[in-house]
């Protein structure tokens, strides 16, 4: 009797186990989301899921932008990118690391697709890709370009950004629209860039140093709102770290801070220096260095200082269409900020939070120190050495005559 009861208990347990497994199998087959939840918790590759054209098409632009803002960037396939860009038919620009094409998502949202050059080494391409996704992919600010998604495939490595109607700031400043813009509008552009940098330096969970601030890396939307772009050289920095060691030169000549070329420890103040040089180009609506100009006007920052010392800053700015007058207060404020930002010692440059306040008129600006003094006067040590050398040569000559 005891054996019979044990057999029945075993049968019942076996049936219960089989039934449980059948229920689990049914749930997995009919509810893929359950399986997706398990995979997302165990597989890191599921952190970025490929989004289909149908999902994008069925969502409104507002919903799409909300998801971009609050979720991770979407992962696209090479086939999708080819469709978005109509076979990469409209090129917007090209740089050292990639070519940018205009595209349109299935929901009608215009985008810019940056495709990395195939000629880049695998290491360089990966560093650029991870730098951009790892920095701009986790930031949300009106003055930073928005990353919608990416493609990381053996055939294509690309980034999908919001489309900026007015393009890069350098082209705007040198074009008809830039020449027609008044100083207040240019000041607003400068303030927007400064706010974006303030956010990167002071308001992110981890400090982000851009390392390549220049007019070509600032984009303008339809309302002329500036957005800092191209984070390929950017780095995340722990706030406890006072300096960052550099193993190679980063940045663009003419905008990179002097300490960048020394491969020594640098701080976020290198971005401040670059912003100062960018501010000079905004004020002058020209390149900082123009080889074809007369020698005294070739380098705009030095020309600006000479005009500032002479009290003739207004001569730097051409009034649009010859009408009206130059806003002297705005011009002087912009130039003073630029002079402070490009000081040689990094510790004498203001933080970006202070730069924003000075540009907005929320605080007075102390008279700046000449940041180009080392370029205008002969070094004292060299003069002493020359004097000493002449003295030694004279003494040697006297000794020879005596002999």
From TrEMBL:
Q: Pfam families under this entry? A: PK_Tyr_Ser-Thr (PF07714)
Q: Where is it predominantly found?
A: membrane
- Report keywords, A-Z: ATP-binding, Glycoprotein, Kinase, Membrane, Nucleotide-binding, Serine/threonine-protein kinase, Signal, Transferase, Transmembrane, Transmembrane helix
Q: Does the keyword NADP apply?
A: no
Concerning InterPro entries, the annotation shows: Kinase-like_dom_sf, LRK10/LRL21-25-like, Prot_kinase_dom, Protein_kinase_ATP_BS, Ser-Thr/Tyr_kinase_cat_dom, Ser/Thr_kinase_AS
Instruction: List the subcellular locations.
Output: Membrane
Q: What range(s) does the Protein kinase domain occupy?
A: 86-373
Q: What's the protein called, per UniProt? A: Protein kinase domain-containing protein
What's the source species for this entry? Paspalum notatum var. saurae
